[in-house]
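Subgroup meeting minutes
Present: P.N., E.W., G.H.
Scribe: E.W.

1. P.N. recapped why we're keeping a running log of single-chain structure predictions: easier to compare across weeks, and new members can see raw inputs and outputs side by side.
2. G.H. added today's entry (226 aa).
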Amino acid sequence: MENKIKAMTDAELAETKRKIAADLLGIRAVFFRPDDPFTWASGIKSPVYCDNRLTLTAPEVRCDVEYGLAGLIRTFYPDAEVLMGTSTAGIAHAAIAGHLLGLPMGYVRSGEKDHGRKNRIEGRLEAGEKTVVVEDLISTGGSVIDTAEALREAGACVLGIVSIFTYGMKKGIERLAGANLENHSLTDFDTVAAVAAEIGYISQSDISRLIAFRNDPSDGSWAGKA
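Output recorded in log:
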């Protein structure tokens, strides 16, 4: 099965970015509420909420996502030996992409168990193994960096991250760079916003407000009426 997964060309990466954006919008995994913002767990007020868990219950989209993630791994991390999902959102995607690539997978808990073997890393991981972290989305980057640090402490050679969606926030980009981590996402905030405007899900005037949020979530000027 893994022989079907090939490295993607630049044109295929660009096509995939728009395809996944359309997929997420098609199953209403992305919600836009610039006039009634969501509150993230971090406390950030956001005009957008992305629920990638909905991809798991939409078989056609799930297929696009998993083959896409496998393609990203083939393209950017061809030497990968094991996939590790973030808990909990990245677990299913790491399992399916690992199956497609014929690679072992495991996952990293947010903290050690308080019973049994008290593992934080579930699944076999050998010191020095070339590891790719699988995440569903990246905003400020905190959780995925924590996952990568746990893997490094266990002796893994963390090649980088693949994810379904990234907001492309400055804070997230800077934190990943500071942790010496690279991320490759199937799609991003700007692409989803552009495709959403093309299909009439949002107006063209909303795009500038959304990009203003992406550039500086602390600047509430984007929340004013367009």
